[in-house]
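Q: I have 184 residues here and want to know how they pack in 3D. Can you give me a structure?
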Amino acid sequence: MLHRLSVWNRLLLCLLLPACSSYAPPDALPGMRREEVIARMGQPDLERPQDSGSRLEFPRGPYGKHTWFVYFDAAGKASHAEQVLTEPNFNRVEAGMAQEQVSQLLGRPSEVWLLGRERGYVWNYRYDADCKWFQVELSLQQEVRSAGYGTPPECDRGGDRVGSCGSGSALKQNATNRNRHDTR
């Protein structure tokens, strides 16, 4: 197959393949300087101060299914990285939490939907699961009302937008299934 590719296609292939290597943190991450990590992974979405250093946040992947947090010590050397869009982290989100606490735990959402009648909004987090995403309903006071798993629009069935904010049924139903309390 390679012999069928034109010179331009081969050049494009050579240029694009290395870009895939910057998706996740490099294997040799511990001890790397902040500038080296950014050179390998690209610009972070956000930098947050931590008790003994800082953290860079890198949302990644198609539809943003991974978010890597890379932690640095006070000397600016990388100590470790973690992929935070996981069910154990989602299960830590509870009604009454502040919006900032959710952001600290999970990073930036993949999508934000505004709820009608000035009821707030929903943060949607895509993650490595088949046709599932995690949804956090936030009040206008920036507090979690409910949280649960829903079905993203691209997985809807027969044109019925399962999990859309129009009815909110998937969010409420899934939040109930997770034994979360709706604080409305």
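Q: Anything worth noting?
A: Residues 23-83 form a domain with the Beta-lactamase Inhibitory Protein; Chain:B, domain 1 fold (CATH 3.30.1450.10). DSSP finds five helices and eight strands in the chain.
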